Amino acid sequence: MMDRCALAYQYHKEGWNCAQAVAGSCADLAGRTPEEVMPLLGGFGGGIGGSHEELCGAVSGGVLILSLCFPHARGGDQAAKQNLYRLSREFRRRFFETFGYTRCGELLRARPGVTEKTPAARRLGAAAHCDIMIVTAVELLEALVAEERGRL
């Protein structure tokens, strides 16, 4: 079985931003390749373009994967739209519950470290701030996708 958390950690070490690392490591969940999804998120790292003002890139990458896994692909399909919104909110809520923030700058100021809520970070020995966010986002995303697919 693929260790998506370890893969995301490696992508970040290679220079991919937080959004790209999360989405690239989870692309297979949506039947895509990292090469297909990573370019779509080039501007989403560092809280949108490195500004550190907006949504954490790890969360943005996760929402892209949710959008590909559970698409709202037709404008009039309100059920699909509402389902994707629900999943996106739930992913954001879980991330917030883990770290207390979802905005890049707030996370950087708070510097939440490795805790019992971040088992993948502990397992991988991730100590750098963004690495902790990335591997935890992957862990949360994997769980949410599995739960939703089990529900369908």
Description of the structure:
This protein is an all-alpha fold. It has one domain. Helix content is 62%, strand content 0%. The chain is built from eight helices and no strands. α1 packs antiparallel against α8 and α2 packs parallel to α8. It is globular.
| Structure classification | mainly alpha
Q: Helix content range of the residues, please?
A: 55-70%
DSSP strand content: under 5%
Distance between the ends: 23 Å
Shape: globular
Radius of gyration: 14 Å
Largest sheet: none
Mean pLDDT rating:
97
- State the low-pLDDT regions, or none: none
Instruction: Give the number of DSSP strands.
Output: 0
Task: Give the number of helices.
Answer: 8
> How many domains comprise the coordinates?
1
Write the element-wise H/E pattern from the N-terminal end onward: HHHHHHHH
SSE arrangement:
Elements lengths: L3 H10 L4 H9 L7 H4 L19 H13 L8 H22 L4 H7 L8 H6 L4 H23 L1
Helix pairs in contact: 1-2, 1-8, 2-4, 2-8, 4-5, 4-8, 5-8
What can be said about this structure in brief?
The protein has 152 residues and is mainly α.
Keywords, separated by commas or semicolons:
mainly alpha; 8 helices; 152 residues; globular
